[in-house]
Amino acid sequence: MDSGLRVLLSTVLCLSQSLLISCSSQYPSFRSEPASLVQSQGSVARLLCSVSPPSAVVSWRFGGRPLDRDTLPGVEFHDGSLTISSLQSGHVGIYQCVARLAHGPAIVSRHARVAIAEISEYENGRRRSLSVQEGSSVLIECPLPHSVPPALPRLRVRGERIEVSTDDYLVLPSGNLQILSVSDRHQGMYRCGAFNPVTGETVMQPHGTKLSVKHSVSPPPVRIVYPTAPRTVLVQQSQPLTLECVVSGSPAPAAKWLKNGKEVTPGPSQQQHNNLVFVAVARSDEGSYTCAAETKQGTVIGANYTVNVLEPASITEGPTNQIVSPGSSARFTCLATGNPSPNITWLFNADPITPSGRFQISGSSLVITDVTLQDGGVFQCILDNGIGSAQSCGILTTQTGMCLSS
To answer: 3-state class of 252 per DSSP?
Structure first.
């Protein structure tokens, strides 16, 4: 047989054997990964984890360390899942599910954050008084207190509870209350309130705001009542957003919105009573916004917002499976998106990789030089940016030198 043909056949045989090794070797994978949760203190919390093949052994990590009943009291394990019988402050943190096969290969899940629902009280401030000219617009500021998850507005308007907007009152997601055209019937006491949707707890402002209406022959001047100073807004991708703009005057002029100096046209956002409303924010909605109104003298006045959109970490291109010979090099790449930029952690068979002479980490890449047979296994990247977490892995197969002989 011709020597060139023998080399070709040997190469084909070598690749076939390598592919056979890669395909026939079992590696663990996740059918479902644990998800972050927020629950009431004392409730039962469950983190679900399903892996394949069935022979894979499931364990858990808490804060990056192995977890068992001794290290964290109050946890139970059943069919791969984790149950916290009574959620307490000591259980708050980051959990991960680990799937490992008897012969070594292992993977770890993305981060699952466990938090306790809570809501803070309003500050014990003084009662406020607000005197507004009849026919003008007014905003009663009711910033929501700290809450996990975010609170929903619950207001008391002249003794009556209001949760959603009415013909007279516009209840905004921030908690603020807007009255479009004030009249005598709006006089009275207004109290801010907030509701935690998980605990079911409602907190009310200790005092409130007393609104009185004054009458004048001359109409109120056109001015922007809210916001009175530039504001920066952080909003998570796909969440709703309302940029508030309250313009006084009788009648109050219609405002127009500008984004980065150009007028906003109807599309992803819609104007509602001079407010700019987004149903689901996208990264492309980031930018500088101005609410502009014109006075009777023709002067343009404005209020400014800067919108920053937070995006959960995600992987656009994960590591790919590789087959290499001992002594050669291998490179794994993990391309990511997210705002803020995610941190990347590399692991080998579920154990964090410490950069060394042979293991070099640079940006989104991991390079293994002088590969040995012991390097065969699962290389994995885990992303986290505080908004979300993701993971992806690639298998490194080392081919033996026996199949290289001709």
So the answer is: coil
Q: Is the pLDDT of residue 267 over 50?
A: yes
Strand segments, DSSP code E, in 318-369 are 322-324, 330-333, 335-339, 343-348, 351-352, 359-362, 365-368
Mean pLDDT, range 68-83, rounded to an integer: 92
CA gap 83, 157 in Å, rounded: 43
**Are 76 and 173 within one domain?**
no
Q: pLDDT digits over 160-179, tens only?
A: 999 999 988 999 999 999 99
Whether residue 124 is found in the same domain as residue 108: no
109 with 145, same domain? no
CATH number at residue 47: 2.60.40.10
Q: Which domain holds residue 57?
A: 3-116+318-404
Query: pLDDT tens digits for 230-263?
Result: 999 999 999 999 999 999 887 778 899 999 999 9
Per-residue pLDDT tens digits for 139-157: 999 999 999 999 999 999 9
> Within this chain, do residues 206 and 139 fall inside the same structural domain, yes or no?
yes
What's the structural domain count of the chain? Answer: 3
The secondary element (H helix, E strand) that includes residue 6 is helix 3-24
Which residues have a Cβ under 8 Å from the Cβ of 196 and sit 6 or more positions away?
Answer: 117, 118, 119, 147, 148, 149, 151, 202
Any idea how long the chain is?
Answer: 406
**Same-domain status, 360 and 399:** yes
